[in-house]
Automatic annotation (TrEMBL):
Taxonomy, superkingdom: Bacteria
Domain named Polymerase beta nucleotidyltransferase: residues: 10-98
Organism: Thermosulfurimonas dismutans
Stored Gene3D superfamilies: Beta Polymerase, domain 2 (3.30.460.10)
Protein's name in the database: Nucleotidyltransferase domain-containing protein
Pfam families linked: Polbeta (PF18765)
Amino acid sequence: MRREEIIRRLKAYFEPRERFRIVILFGSVARGDIKRESDVDLAVLAEPALSLRELLRLMGELEDLCGRRADVVQLQDLCEDKPAVAFEVTREGIPLKIVDREEWLRLRERIWHHYLDTEYLRRLNWRYFKEALRRRRAGASSALTQQPQAA
């Protein structure tokens, strides 16, 4: 199914469902980089928030609708748990439904501030990870050069 058809179907699905205040398509489908294994990635703001059961049911309905796997994340969780992903959703995502533009702009602003406020921590974490990886590789290569002598 082509990107335009997926977008049309998703808009038609969410439009009458008042519980969904914000729906954003992101990922490979939003970028137009659809491959056979691509899934449909959506970020939603529902009032009230979806339970796990409701989230799983929604993903199943969307998979049937789009003919491919669907991953749905709740924006309120994404903002705090994964600020880099939330930032990408707001930066590159395609809004499919925005009930209140002011609410969307406030949420975007909160996500961007949180992303920028935590950027230093992500860089620090990345630096520690690379250093640990470098030490591990150095340890592995020295172990290879110190092979036991034949008796």
